[in-house]
Amino acid sequence: MMTGWWLLGLVLGGAVSGIGTARAELANCSPKVDNFILFVDQSGSMYQQHKEAKEIKEILAKRLLGQMNDQIPQISYKGGLYLFAPFAPATPMAPYLRGTMGAGIASIPDSQTVFRMTPMGQGLGDLSGVLSGLSGKTAVIMFSDGEQNTGPDPIVAAQQMVSAHPDLCVHVVSFADSVYGTWLNRRISLVGRGCVYAEGTELMADAAKLEQFVRDVFCGPAKAKEKIVLRGLNFDFDKATIRSDGKSVLDEAVRILKEHPDIRISVEGHTDAVGTDAYNQRLSERRAQAVAAYLAAGGIARSRMGVEGFGESKPVASNETEDGRAQNRRVEFGITSK
């Protein structure tokens, strides 16, 4: 029997094999979790200089968060960014979009007073309210130097949190520069089953280690994936509006996706090379969002769609001709079975 994604490829114009990475994003990542939370310590000690790295720990953490956000595959899960000590939402839980998460990361203060205490246990307890509203498997990725000095025991708080949410894993990215902080962060990462501990400065210095960390947290066993070019769906120059001659292609995609609920898709926007890289990146994201909105209006659940823009980075034809540029102004589907 022909599988759903091959059928979709045949109807919409054929599958194109050989998928590469999306900028720094991981290739061929089958989602391991349904939700993830970036959980960042903003206590006073994080605004002190790291003894070995000689930079403010929170600045290091923000830089690593940005690098990690570039690699997290933009597929069908919810993501959020929360701070603790004190607890505050920077990016509340929502379907994950790299740009939205990036804005949340940028909003983390670059400086704070350093006399505040560090109630890590209280922070983990406060996160339980967010977790109670989620379903499925959840990854919490905690960024901290482990300098707990007041409030409930954070190890006990982590144990209670995992006991209340058995599908939860608390991964730890440590910016500790003391024996105690390192010990505490390691102990927290051991509370759940198969959770990952990593030294933040090592992830920043070694791209392969960072990629492996993201893969370990976010990616399950690889599943078959194909790239579908939506033949007949192109965009006018500098536009993200779906033309009338492309709506029939998307209507057919809606029909097939409804018939094959085992299919997940990543909606991937592209541009020609006219304009700056930054402008074309935003334009490609708008094109992908327009297609995703059309599919959602047709009854395809947003949870089945990731959205990504590649700007001008992946041309399929020469940008030296008008015909080639028209072909590059396109949207593609990445197809993965559930």
Characterize the structure shown:
- This protein is of the alpha/beta class.
- The chain folds into 2 domains: about 5-25 and about 220-335, 2-Layer Sandwich (60s Ribosomal Protein L30, Chain: A), CATH 3.30.1330; about 30-220, Rossmann fold (3-Layer(aba) Sandwich), CATH 3.40.50.410.
- The protein has helices at about 5-10, 55-70, 100-105, 120-130, 155-165, 180-190, 200-205, 205-220, 245-260, 275-295, 320-330, and strands at about 15, 30, 35-40, 80-85, 90-95, 140-145, 170-175, 195-200, 220, 225-235, 265-270, 305-310, 330-335.
- α1 (about 5-10) runs antiparallel to α9.
- The model is unreliable at about 1-5 and about 10-25 (pLDDT under 50).
Uncertain residue ranges? 1-7, 9-24
Major beta-sheet overview: 6 strands, mixed
CATH class of the largest domain: Alpha Beta
Shape descriptor reads elongated
The secondary-structure class comes to: alpha/beta
Instruction: Report the CATH superfamily of the largest domain.
Output: von Willebrand factor, type A domain
